[in-house]
Amino acid sequence: MTFTLQQALIPVDQGYTTVDVRVVGDTITAISPSLEVVGTVVNCENKLLLPGFFNAHTHSPEMWQRGVIPPLPLELWLAELYDFAPLEVEKVYLSALGTAVETLLSGGTSVVDHLVLIPGQEIETIAATIQAYQAVGIRAFVAPLIWDQSLISGIPSGENQAENSIPGRSAQEILQMLEEAINKFHKPEAGVYILTAPTGIQLCSDELFVGCGELSDRYNLCRHSHLLETKAQQLLAQEKYGCSAVEHLNRIGYLSSRTSLAHCVHLTDDDIKILAETQSTVVHNPLSNLRLGSGIAPILKYRQAGVNVSFGCDGASSNDSQDLLEAIKIGSILHNVTDLDYQHWITPRQAVEMASLGGAKGLNLGEQLGSLTVGKKADLVLYDLTNLSLLPRTDPIGLLMLGRPTQVVDSVWVDGKRVVENGRVSTINVDDLKQELFAKSEWVTNRKSKTVSEFEAHYRSVMGLS
Amino acid sequence: MTFTLQQALIPVDQGYTTVDVRVVGDTITAISPSLEVVGTVVNCENKLLLPGFFNAHTHSPEMWQRGVIPPLPLELWLAELYDFAPLEVEKVYLSALGTAVETLLSGGTSVVDHLVLIPGQEIETIAATIQAYQAVGIRAFVAPLIWDQSLISGIPSGENQAENSIPGRSAQEILQMLEEAINKFHKPEAGVYILTAPTGIQLCSDELFVGCGELSDRYNLCRHSHLLETKAQQLLAQEKYGCSAVEHLNRIGYLSSRTSLAHCVHLTDDDIKILAETQSTVVHNPLSNLRLGSGIAPILKYRQAGVNVSFGCDGASSNDSQDLLEAIKIGSILHNVTDLDYQHWITPRQAVEMASLGGAKGLNLGEQLGSLTVGKKADLVLYDLTNLSLLPRTDPIGLLMLGRPTQVVDSVWVDGKRVVENGRVSTINVDDLKQELFAKSEWVTNRKSKTVSEFEAHYRSVMGLS
Description:
The structure is a homodimer of 466-residue chains.
Chain A: E1 2-12, E2 15-24, E3 27-32, E4 40-43, E5 47-51, E6 53-58, H1 74-83, H2 89-104, E7 108-116, H3 122-136, E8 139-145, H4 171-185, E9 192-194, H5 206-219, E10 223-227, H6 231-241, H7 245-251, E11 259-263, H8 269-278, E12 281-284, H9 286-291, H10 299-304, E13 308-311, H11 324-333, H12 348-362, E14 380-384, H13 396-402, E15 409-414, E16 417-421, E17 424-425, H14 430-439, H15 450-462
Parallel strand pairs in A: 1-4, 6-7, 7-8, 8-9, 10-11, 11-12, 12-13
Antiparallel strand pairs in A: 1-2, 2-3, 5-14, 14-15, 15-16, 16-17
């Protein structure tokens, strides 16, 4: 497939210019003020062209519970989430479709799905999710979410506790499943990447982390994990290891330039130095961090220390959306209240770079993706600058990053293939998807989480809540 | 005009029920599981009916500069804003149309426009704005933004400073203009309300505040003002008055149950007590407070102290949008990081009440507006629950408040008149508006604010920035 984008507005230095862009196959082959037309012509008048963004951390099956979990901190929220997690592969397929559609229509061309697996149907869950992402045509980074300790062990006990293993789910069994998934599904040339992804220090043994590191080395995979999302996890790390979680993960070799870490809310300055030295990436999920009361990640400090930062929506029941533009906006402006000196604040152009090149670097693909550069893959998004939410005309990137753009994505290409056209996803029937999501759900008036009621008194006591 | 909404989902206690709603003229006259049809029938199947929300603080002409002011704190941002403020009445008309449309399409039926006036054309500015709001059909609270001291006096000097008056704009001249506007435009029965609205202690003399209080009493008007938006204003109040701004405003009699105060970021516990005692309302503008780095207003403390709180978008160049659902979402979840105890966090249902009844109370209209109650005015919004962003079905209000709903507003009635139908504004031609906004603007690549460069060194020095 060859096509020429004609007269697209693109950012240069401090301003903008209008260019033609040629794409041959999956690659950007030329960018110039005026190009001879080759292949299909796409008129880009009054449209802004940017590299596709990365939804660098989410959990697609959470879409089934968006809007319904009450205001709770992560540890209790998680208890409720797991009580009502979808257990049908077909549902997982549908929520992956929904996640992909919402990501594409808010500027994302890649999704990192830290995928919660249906117990006993782990491989089927992964297969269905990948099938959905391929149907929509989004670049898919699937990170099967694994852990080998019981949920209660993720809450500090107030005293050192023995690790709680789960009968029948040893680290070795889980790693075998993961290796099977890698062999079956990891196909970068087809836009499908498997990541190793233990959920985090709160529920994983060292054996699981080390095993994931070995698989990552053996198969050249990126590594993913949650890291220090909450105050409780910070306490827990001290209980478990007698040091910070970052020090521990560094000691056991999980941190690297291929490692991306979701949240990173409660890190010390020493921890930040370790992230910089190991070239790890922080994935910032601002909406989830607010919704769960986790805190404000020290993103300006990360940037000053040279740590790469990208953005994620996080799962749709801790956000409760998959609108990437919203996550980028809030993830940019939120930090202005943490530093009086506005010269450190994230500019709209810096936000674009974090969301695109930052995302690519965090997945070890900075050479192939994340910018409008000849030779890079054609993961492109075209924004309609005549939409009311982007008017009157001022600074296009400022409007996009700081405003609340709705329905502004005109076209999206992933790997050179067009997947959104005239504001509509062209690869699947979204009306059908809506009907299926509607039919397979019901309005919830009251539901009670058994696990929350079991955990709550202990949580309040450990966290010093009266 | 009489109509019957059939089978709308509405919230009751902890759950939902389906009802018919009858509207006669401007009033809700019956709500019941099943009503005899009177007048036009509106099918509300799979739709959620809520009272209209209040966009309780904005500045409509700022729409002309949205997306373009760089990351700056309020005092410098304001300098740039004023350097490039629109000076044509026609532009003010268009941005009021835009503000009304975006507010309606995000659940708002009322807008409080703290209206920046074109110097020398103050009455014309107000007239054009009201004309726009009446054309769209939104309930309009127009609060002409007045001040009588020069812009530089809004920045603390580091020492006590004399008040800087502006030649030719005495408090008395301004108050005369305001009284003329009141006599010309204040028509509550037509949905147009004038408020007294000195911009704030940073740029206003006591004479101006006291004069506004007198006009408010004489004409039974609500009162509005900015209050302690920034750290700099907190310093300035101590310089000017030797006490907090709240103490001072209370002493000169500006606080009352008809007074709504935008921002309220930097208040002490004693200040909060004064707001509670005077029954003043806080208008929370979370996005603007983040964007300008002003801080996080202590909203949970206000609620615990019994202070009424509503939500505003603030002007579109400090947000940079007029999406009320976004402001409500962020204004709800933002505070979860300020209090470890999740039992204090704002629930989605509480957010709805703040945005509707809270807004009405802040404008002394709690008896007439703000809830689905027989006898109240029919300011109603109907949300389409089959929109992808509200699927799968879970808790409708949770989805609406915590998600990122786009294009979900199906219908809006203000004062019993339908102004949005099938997701489209029916009173004006929005395509024409888009074309005019496009034609009257241009993409900005570089602009330099003269006043920012004049103020910046002084600001940095006073604020202790190296």
